[in-house]
From TrEMBL:
Keywords: ATP-binding, Cell membrane, Membrane, Nucleotide-binding. GO terms for molecular function: ATP binding; ATP hydrolysis activity. The keyword Membrane applies. Signal peptide: none annotated. NCBIfam families: sufC (TIGR01978). Belongs to the ABC transporter superfamily. Ycf16 family. This is Cysteine desulfurase. Residues 2-246 form the ABC transporter domain. SUPFAM superfamilies: P-loop containing nucleoside triphosphate hydrolases. It comes from Noviherbaspirillum autotrophicum.
Length: 252
């Protein structure tokens, strides 16, 4: 599904990713943990193809093809989805309008018939009910005035509607209370499938109690310095990151 080799990327001339390697197969859920500023969001943004993030070396293969030349919209059409750490507000564009356009764009690309307004509303209302989201959020501007938890749920709703092949969730657990966290986790778990891969960026072990990852990676100073199973997250919770952060410096 995804093979990242020796990835180097810069933001504003500062090298943030420094030789990152990661392989993700279909069906797997990978958690990426690591201290603040280690490059987790940068990795997510680079995979989504956002402006300002410049790949200076290395390779990213998605389904065997070079991902890097593709524009963000092309990546999305090909099934790459990013849930942002800080979801963007889009004043003047209603949530339902954006979601319908996004879903029909992907459906068209997959050779499926577009959904009309009625069909789409039926689908989205059912998914919103599962996430315990109020219908009223459909008719508000995208994320505008949404609470932190509503924004995060809206990201998971988008993911559920788009049915991506590779989903990258950047701190989708942050700012959620326990009830909202469980709903978000249920939403994520419902999308686990042998055809789909997920990368979950998280600061805390808590989400991983509910969405149990196949692999846990620690990112430090722009590269993965340790990989383990779900038990690694527990060890990190106990010991922090300090014992790992020194490793790359010594290697260098
Ligand atoms: P994380 O998500 O792991 O907390 P980030 O990927 O957001 O880390 O940030 C990694 C580093 O890149 C930080 O030192 C941060 O200050 C820097 N950085 C991120 N975005 C920008 C930007 N737009 N301009 C300059 N520096 C940035
Ligand atoms: Mg952070
Ligand atoms: Mg981040």
């Amino acid at each position: 599904m995804l093979k990242i080799t020796n990835l180097h990327a810069s933001v504003d001339g500062n090298e943030i990713l420094r030789g990152l390697n990661l392989t993700v197969n279909a069906g797997e859920v990978h958690a990426i943990m690591g201290p603040n500023g280690s490059g987790k969001s940068t990795l997510a943004q680079v995979l989504a193809g956002r402006d300002n993030y410049h790949v200076t070396a290395g390779e990213v293969l998605y389904q065997g093809r070079d991902l890097l030349p593709l524009a963000p919209e092309e990546r999305a059409r090909e099934g790459v989805f990013l849930a942002f750490q800080y979801p963007v507000e889009i004043p003047g564009v209603s949530n339902v309008y954006l979601l319908k356009a996004a879903v029909n764009n992907v459906r068209k690309h997959r050779g499926l018939p577009e959904l009309d307004a009625m069909e789409f509303l039926k689908l989205i209302k059912q998914k919103m009910k599962q996430m315990q989201m109020s219908d009223e959020l459909l008719y508000r501007s995208v994320n505008e005035g949404f609470s932190g938890g509503e924004k995060k749920r809206n990201e998971v709703l988008q993911m559920a509607l788009l049915e991506p092949k590779l989903a990258i969730l950047d701190e989708t657990d942050s700012g959620l209370d326990i009830d909202a966290l469980q709903l978000v986790a249920q939403g994520i778990n419902a999308l686990r499938s042998p055809e789909r891969a997920m990368i979950m960026v998280t600061h805390y072990q808590r989400l991983l109690d509910y969405v149990v990852p196949d692999f846990v990676h620690v990112l430090s100073q722009g590269r993965i310095v340790k990989t383990g199973g779900k038990e690694l997250a527990l060890e990190l919770e106990e010991r922090g990151y300090g014992w790992l952060e020194e490793a790359p410096a010594r290697q260098a």
